[in-house]
Structures are given as structure tokens and as C-alpha cells.
Amino acid sequence: MALINIGSSKQLFVDNYLVESLKNAWQVMNPAEKVEDNPVILPDRPWEGNSLTLSKIMYFPQDRLFRMWYSTTSNYAVRLENGQIDYFPKDDDLQAVSHLCLATSSDGIRWEKPDLGLVEFRGSKHNNILPAGHMIGKLYGFFEDEREPDPARRYKGMLREGTVEKAGMQWYLYFSPDLEHWTSYEHNPVVDTYPRVGRWGPTDFMGWDPIRQVYAAHMENCLHRNSPLNRRLIGRAESPDMIHWSEPETIIVPDEQDPPDLEFYALPAIVYEGLYVGLLWNFRTLTCFHHPELVFSRDGIHYERRYREPFIPRGSKGDFDCASVYAIQPFVHGDRIFTYYNGVNHRSVEVLLELGEKALGTIGLATTPLDGFVSVDGPKNEYGELVTRSFSFTGKALVVNMHSHLIDFGVRLCDLRVELLAPDHELIPGYTFQECDPILDSDAAHVVSWQGKSDLSAFAGQAIKLRFYIKHARLYSFWFR
Length: 481
Fold this sequence. Notes:
By secondary structure, the chain is mainly beta. Helices cover 2% and strands 41% of the residues.
């Protein structure tokens, strides 16, 4: 039996957990691809001002419908005669600077703003505005708890009151059966930072963590720059019930490879195929730019920052997301991974003043193929090699998720083959490079075969290694089924 037993779980190459060696092949972080019709939601209604902020997106399979909740603001600035900066709405007749609105979509890309008929705006109720005081507009984070046996507590959300500058923060827990009717937990607040000022800053509630079997939250674990490292840091707190929370532990801090002005603002994270995948918000204090960095962990505490380039790059000058990209938790839909984000073309007061009515905040979408966060890439004209560590498995067939590259005229250059090795690297007869049937095209679930044979059940439970030969292709993952 090998030291590592992968069972039938999918194996990604985000770290070196199963990688013994690479020869002429590379682990590459693949930035998410912005959809063609970005941004997917624009402030194009009179009540939306010039800036939209994404609150939450959820998919409801029973309705085959996405629902997006977002808030609107009119974010303009002027410099007064005394030199002070003042903010004001573009139109004095806006009635309110901010509204909570609802949008819907069948595919997550093309969105509609339904006529809800609930709130009057300038004499008409033909709009998608939700009533003032709606709990979703107040909650800092909410999620569906599929583990919850009580239908009245199917959805859970947290509301924040107070600020770290004013003697701490308090967090209040709420429950809902339908996202419309909310009930406050009778013993609120469940978190009270007073007098320990400086924790639970901008917070992202992960929900239930199936690996550590707890509810989890990531937060800016400091009072902005009033921290031991004089920078914003990322902390993690855990709870068995969303009521009793641990003291936040700092888990990610800037290191010697980071620029002096880099700080961390938030960490939206999910569990994906047995891994923690986080989008670490990088904040450059000198330019006020934000972008998400892809980070990974196997225990939820120790995150590896191997890939420092942006997962969703900021746009070019003049684009709606040229200043900052604020990504939320990614999620799987169909054969893609969706990552929505708030994109803005300003971050500092100076730029806001310069842009005036051209200042914009809106909502974008970038997507990733299944398992495609990181790939092992091979060269164009020869084979690269990846050898795994010894492992055991359960199942009958080896399956790979691979993306090919094409050149002009549709000529296919990709080629992926697999060898089975004993733990000492001895070739296993019948499963060599020469006997492997080549994989010549993209496939998210391609069964590997050797001279037409794919049944590997004779090796289940034994220690083996795999040697992948990769030419002009990206290998995302493998598993046994």
C-alpha cells in the first residue's frame, strides 16, 4: 500500500503533493477568462447612479435561474473651497443614494432586471428595486446551509454593527427559510470584539467547511494599519454552529517577495475537489489598486502563494475594471467555474475627481474550465514529462482532464500519453508509452487506454506511479472511476 491513497478523488496539480518530478514541463496558473460581453451588469437605469456593488449571486436549480442582489450608489466627488472633499449624488431627485436591486439570468451571463413593482421611484413602480430595509441589503454575508435540518434555518446570514474605530464590532446571526423572512438569533450578538479592537474587519463567510467540519470565516485580522506588521492581514475563525466562534488566527501575511506597499484585504475561499481555493485580495496602498491572487491550501490554515500574478487581471486604462477587481467566491456551473467581481475604474479620491461623471463601478464575470486553475503544460514540438509520487487508488479506469492547443488550419499538435510505473520506476508491461493510445484533443473526462484496454482494476489498492507525456497540451487533473 502506498503512503498516499487517493481513492477515486480528483487530483489537481496546484502544488507538489503528488508531483515527484517535472521534465520539460511546467505548472502554470491559468488566469480566468473575462466573458466577451463584460461587464455583465451595467448601471443603465435612472435609479442606479453610476456604481453597482455586488452583494450575492445564487443559482436555484429548481428554477434553473441565477439571482443576483446588488446595491446602487451615485459616487461622485467635488473639492470644496476649503480643500475638503465632499461626495454627492448626481441627481438631487434620486430620493436615496443607494438601493438594493435584483437581477436574474438563465445562464449567468445575460442578465435581466425584472419589473418587481415593489418600490416607487419617481412616480413609478416599474423597476427592480427591493424594499428599503430588506435584510439581504443589510447582511454582510449569507449562504444556504445544506446541512441544516430545520427548514426555518435553511439560510444563514450575518449582520455587522459598529466599526473597529468605535470600540469594536458586533456580529448578529439571522436565519431564513426563503431569503425573504429573517429571524434574529435570540442570543445575539454572536461575536463582540469589544474591547479587543482590531479583528473581524472586512469579512467573507465561507459557510460550511466540509474538510475541517466547521463553519469558517476569513477576515482582515487587524485594525487596518494598526497591526503588528503595520499591514492588513488575513485571519480565520471557526465555529461548530455559527454561534460560538474561535478567536481569529492570522493565516496569511505579506512576505519578503511582496512589494513594500502590498496588503491583503479579504479572502473569499471555497472547497474544490478536496482543496481550499482562495482569491486573496491584493491591495497596493501606493496606487490603491486591487486584484485577486490565487492561493491554495490542503488544511485551510497553511496557504501556498506559489502564483503571484493576478488571477483576474485589471483591465486596460479606460476599461470599467482598470483600477480594481474585487472577486467573490467562485462556483461551478456546468462545465465552467464562474467568478463574478466588482470592477471599478477609480479607487483614489484624486482619480474620482478627475473622472467626474465617467467614474464607474459595475459587475464583471470571468470563467475557468473545470479543474483549470493550474495546469501542467508541455512544449509544442516534444514531450514534457510529469512523474507522480507513489499512490494507491480505487476504481477501474484512469481519467484525465486535458486541454489541447490548435494551430492554424486546424492542425492538431497535442498529444498526451500515460505510462504505469512501479514505485521504483520500473515500467509495467502492457502500460508503456508505446502501448498507450494517444489523446489528441481536449476532453474534460478522457478515459486512458492501452491498445484499447482501459481496465486497471488489477492495480487497485497497489502502489503505482504515473508518468504523463505531454506535448502542446495542458493537463488539468486525473482520477480513477
